[in-house]
What we know:
- The chain has helices at residues 25-30, 44-56, 82-85, 107-117, 130-163, 170-185; strands at residues 35-39, 60-64, 96-99.
- It is mainly alpha-helical.
Amino acid sequence: MTTQPNHAFGKCSVFQAPKRWLTSIADCRSKKTVIKIHGAPPSAPTRRAIAAVEEKGLNYEFVLVDMATAQHKKQPFISINYDIVQPYYEIETVPVFEDGDMKPCESRFITGYIARTYAGEGTPLVPSDPKEWTAVIQWSEVESQQFDPTASKLSCELVIKAIFGRTTDEAAVEELKAKLMRIQER
């Protein structure tokens, strides 16, 4: 685990992870950490999982995954969730979450797992009222199915391409911005 990313993402100040995310192994061991989040700081799904554990005030270890060298597509990373998701697919995305023998994957499921498993700790992540809960789940679906795919493409055009020296497609940027505005106006 490193406190300073040594890949292309680490060169852009936008993607510098807060120091509290990148705790030392010794610090984690002294707190008896069992939760681990394997991820990359620029990844929105990684940030989603980290936000959940931070809101709950949980001790965790952040394990940096170097996506620039495709570490997320190699062993041992892809076998972390092997027992749970095989034979369906191998996890090649971040984050990967470990809580003892539980290894849920997919960031939205991870946040739900954290909300339910650690309901009595820290900030409540979901409301207890059924009507309020329904609204949260409904808008979570809108976010995951409509907003996030569009925002991710826009992020790629405006940020990721710049990091890797690629040309931004200005027409795509304008189209994606317009689509996000339509989603937000609903």
